[in-house]
Design goal:
Number of strands: 7
Number of helices: 10
Distance between the termini: 45 Å
Shape: elongated
Radius of gyration: 23 Å
Largest sheet: 3 strands, mixed
Structural class: alpha/beta
Helix content: 40-55%
Order of helices and strands: HEHEEEHHEHHHHHHEE
Length: about 260
């Protein structure tokens, strides 16, 4: 039936046939054999992805070790889950754990925080893709290399932003938006607008947090460090993470929203 469906929807020859590594034999080899026997060239490229495992076994309903997508989305936002699943090479086994998902979410939030820092000083639009990123993606979708390039640009952009080099920081942010757009995880894309939370709520939160940060900056200037620390602790208790930078304090909500 797979040969029949492929021929019906895609014709006798098409570009890519995907599937899990566990389907290479006998399913896909038989599919190819019967299609060729019928005179169809069939798929030009076969791409077999690695599986998601848990405790050394593949996830399977029959084994009862399945973690559903809705369950994962209670632990991480949709773009963070996508980041987690595409960061390894597509042919690699992903050994699922809550810790690994949390670590991936933190990596995504570093990208998100950088883009928000720059975007707070003006619009950031997708720019040119770095050549190293293009080379990595052209190399059998080598996403680990592509992610390494992206995080290097984020680090360079943060360094430029902290040094007051707005032009270099904006160039880096534009490149990061371009790369995340290719991967489908652009934090500033409308695709993930619902994942960013209600803008009006965030605006109200921003006003309140900025007021506390102004009081904290005033206390630090007056060398009243006890008050400054107390204000920062109060923000942390509320889930607000504060980072002191040369250009002033930057804040994010602890869960990345």
């Amino acid at each position: 039936e797979c040969s029949a469906m492929a021929t019906y929807y895609l014709g006798g020859e098409f570009d890519i046939h995907g599937g899990g590594l566990d389907l290479v034999f006998p399913h896909h080899e038989n599919e190819l054999a019967q299609s060729r026997a019928a005179g169809d060239p069939f798929a030009r490229i076969w791409m077999h992805n690695g599986l998601v495992g848990m405790a050394g076994e593949k996830m399977s309903k029959s084994l009862g070790n399945v973690v559903s997508i809705p369950a994962m989305l209670r632990k991480a936002r949709a773009p963070e889950l996508r980041y987690y699943l595409i960061q390894p090479h597509y042919r690699s086994l992903i050994e699922y754990s809550d810790e690994a998902l949390h670590e991936a979410a933190q990596g995504y939030r570093r990208i998100e925080q950088f883009l928000r820092r720059v975007a707070a000083h003006g619009e950031v639009v997708p720019g040119e893709l770095p050549a190293e990123f293009v080379d990595a993606m052209n190399d059998d979708l080598a996403t680990p290399k592509a992610f390494a390039v992206m995080h290097n640009v984020v680090r360079e952009g943060n360094t430029a932003f902290d040094a007051g080099d707005d032009d270099k920081a904006r160039q880096a942010a534009s490149a990061v938006r371009a790369m995340t757009a290719v991967l489908g995880i652009d934090p500033l894309s409308e695709q993930w607008a619902d994942e960013r939370g209600d803008d009006k709520v965030r605006q109200a939160l921003s006003v309140l947090v900025e007021a506390v940060l102004e009081d904290r900056s005033r206390a630090r200037a007056e060398k009243d460090f006890a008050t400054a620390d107390r204000l920062r602790d109060r923000l942390q208790e509320a889930g607000i993470v504060v980072e002191d930078t040369p250009s002033g304090p930057q804040w994010t909500v602890a869960d990345g929203r």
